[in-house]
Write a structure and sequence with these properties.
Elements (H helix, E strand, L loop, with lengths): L5 E8 L7 E7 L5 E8 L8 E7 L11 E6 L6 E9 L2
Antiparallel strand pairs: 1-4, 1-6, 2-3, 2-5
Length: about 90
C-alpha cells in the first residue's frame, strides 16, 4: 500500500438498495486502524452499478499487512463488489 492513495469499489446488485453504501478500509483487523472511508448515496431506480471512491491514508512502514474491507449499513441487501481499483493518485 506504499504508493496507493485511493481505492474505487465498483458495486453491483440485482435490486437497488434503498439506502447508500459505506465502505471502510482497515489495517490488520476488522477493528484495526481506519485507513479510509467512502460512501455512495442511494442509487436511482434502474441503476445496477455504483462507484465508491475511498481516499486512503498511506502505509509506508515496509511491513506486510492484512487489509480489511468492511461494509457498514443498516439495510440487508444482495450486492457484490465487482472490482476494486488501486490508485496512485
Amino acid at each position: 500500500l506504499t504508493a496507493v492513495r485511493s481505492l474505487n469499489f465498483i458495486i453491483g446488485w440485482q435490486a437497488p438498495p434503498q439506502t447508500g453504501y459505506t465502505f471502510e478500509v482497515r489495517l490488520d483487523a476488522p477493528d484495526g486502524k481506519l485507513l479510509g472511508k467512502g460512501t455512495m448515496p442511494a442509487p436511482q431506480k434502474g441503476q445496477q452499478y455504483g462507484n465508491i471512491m475511498v481516499p486512503l491514508e498511506t502505509v509506508s512502514d515496509g511491513k506486510l499487512h492484512s487489509v480489511y474491507f468492511l461494509y457498514n449499513g443498516t439495510e440487508k441487501t444482495a450486492a457484490g463488489i465487482n472490482s476494486i481499483q488501486f490508485n496512485a493518485k
